[in-house]
Write a structure and sequence with these properties.
The chain is α/β, with parallel strands linked by helices. The chain has 3 helices and 7 strands, in the order βαβαββαβββ. It has a 7-stranded mixed β-sheet, covered by helices on one side. β3 (67-70) and β4 form a beta hairpin. α1 (10-21) crosses α2. Bound molecules: adenosine-5'-triphosphate and magnesium ion. Residues 40-41, 61, 80, 108 line the site of magnesium ion.
């Protein structure tokens, strides 16, 4: 059975993310799927801060920059593949060194660009339930 919870605010999603991060061990890909505005970046704030890699407020959307890197041990990559159209684009992300050191990589819109990786993966799906309610499912 996939694990499922419903949150009712951004704060609640961040809090769940910090709890969830306690189970994450590098190397790992955290694949976030879900429509625009479901809370992928919000959840990433919780995960990155829970891993001790950055403060919640310092975690911002990598929408235009495509990838942010936080912390040292583990290094946490946070990328948004929404605008990635090709492997060439992907190579310009600066993620080529990523697999050299065990890190945690959080990927928004991961379904847009399936990544071949030797690392284990966990997929987290976010869905709108109306208003501020979101369903979060760990797959
Ligand atoms: N329960 C909730 N969980 C997460 N965010 C919520 C919740 N309720 C309201 N919000 C709001 O929804 C928005 C979610 O935006 P966020 O940038 O995290 O989404 P996203 O999935 O990363 O979008 P995008 O696909 O554009 O990157 C924020 O403005 C946040 O405050
Ligand atoms: Mg986002």
């Amino acid at each position: 059975m996939p694990e499922e919870i419903v949150t009712h605010s951004a704060e609640e999603t961040i809090h769940w993310g910090t709890e969830f991060s306690k189970r994450l061990k590098a190397p790992l890909l955290v694949l976030l799927t879900g429509d625009l505005g479901t809370g992928k970046t919000t959840l990433a704030k919780g995960i990155v801060s829970g891993l001790g890699a950055a403060k919640e407020d310092d975690v911002t959307s990598p929408t235009f920059t495509l990838v942010h890197v936080y912390g040292k041990s583990p290094k946490v990559y946070h990328a948004d593949l929404y605008r990635i159209e090709s492997f060439h684009d992907f190579e310009t992300l600066g993620m080529e060194d990523m697999f050299a050191t065990p890190s945690v990589a959080i990927l928004e819109w991961s379904e847009r660009f399936p990544l071949q990786s030797p690392w284990p993966q966990v997929q987290v799906r976010l869905e709108h339930l109306g208003g501020d309610a979101r369903r979060i499912t760990v797959l």
